[in-house]
Amino acid sequence: MQFSKRSKNLEPSVTLGASEKAKQLKAQGADVLSLTVGEPDFTTPVHIQEAAIEAIRSGQTSFYTPTSGIPQLKQAIVAYLKKYYGLTYDTSETMVTDGAKFALYTLFQAILDPDDEVIIPVPYWVSYGEQVKLAAGTPIFVEGKEENQFKVTAEQLEEVTTEHTKAMILNSPSNPTGMIYSKEELEAIGEWAVKHDILIVSDDIYGRLVYDDNVFTPIATISEKIRRQTLIVNGVSKSYSMTGWRIGFVAGNKELIQAMSDIASQSTSNPAAVSQFAAAEALNGPQDSVEEMRKAFEERMKRIYPLLLEIPGVKLQKPQGAFYFFPNVKETMELCGYDDVTEFCDALLNEAHVATVTGQGFGSNENIRISYATDIRTLEEMVKRVKEFVEKKRKK
């Protein structure tokens, strides 16, 4: 059987790949600590579960919904953006999707033709570039220097801007680094986008998970002209521990939203009805659980961050948001006799039974990603095992 060029050129997700390797080793009886997938270790709050159950019992979830989402959820999204962004959108400027990931997929399908370019800061979330390629576009990677907290500047963006540049992805707080762009940095990037009529794809999925009194500023709030240049991408997966419910949402230009909805109508028809009623309760209902989870992640980060720095060779920027560490392990690898970060991660898994994600999938050959969306005991044991692994390797 012959397969399409696009399928053969597609790189599999290193995050899901690492998670699968960990599961396979665990199935063989190994005591594996998996720190791979970006998934909160909390169950969905009870009031959200109960809203879903009530929607099922009342018969509201038995039928197709509008492609762009049920009115109750779209209204909840509008209210959410007004409350947390201070911005006013019409429901026609919003769309509900099968996770924020599918929101990005439909976006790129809607805006890209062959040879169109999307600027992607490095390090990046693993699916950005592959989704651009699936839409026949060209990802243009711009390195966020580690000495600048992995963030790109408007000057760097200007250098790679061409007549083919259609969009730029902004992820703050960042997966995998946890870094946050300041208001001043965002203003410069926004002005660059307005100047060149380039769409800002603002992936705000971790915007509620911020630590140490750092502030998340949505780029759409900088000015009205920058808001008009921005598509907000968000969802309920991270802040509400609803990864399995698969609900994302977008807000932006009405015509772009309609084009994305048309594509979804010919692919998924609509997001699962029960998940939409649950998401409406998440956005409208009590927000206590969000703060409880945020505090738990912050506690873990503060506890484990200094311990990671005790591992020989490790250099690490302190995360400001999200729930990942992205340590530079170049010197650690050299101490252990490795020059390839993926081989280093494989050795950690097979010998220390610690599952991390290679930085290569994020565009970084000297880093690994460690999720701290798990309990402190597991995280402390992870550090202990990695230190023992490094010390053992150094003796050879």
TrEMBL record:
InterPro entries, per the entry: Aminotransferase_I/II_large, AspAT/PAT-like, NHTrfase_class1_PyrdxlP-BS, PyrdxlP-dep_Trfase, PyrdxlP-dep_Trfase_major, PyrdxlP-dep_Trfase_small
GO molecular function: pyridoxal phosphate binding; transaminase activity
Keywords annotated in UniProt: Aminotransferase, Pyridoxal phosphate, Transferase
EC assignment: 2.6.1.-
Biological process per Gene Ontology, one example term: amino acid metabolic process
Residues annotated as domain Aminotransferase class I/classII large: 31-386
Cofactors (names): pyridoxal 5'-phosphate
Keyword Chloroplast: no
Presence of keyword Transport: no
Pfam families listed in its UniProt record: Aminotran_1_2
Family according to the record: Belongs to the class-I pyridoxal-phosphate-dependent aminotransferase family.
Protein name as it appears in the record: Aminotransferase
Organism: Tetragenococcus osmophilus
Upper taxonomic lineage: Bacteria, Bacillati, Bacillota, Bacilli, Lactobacillales
Gene name tied to this protein: aspB
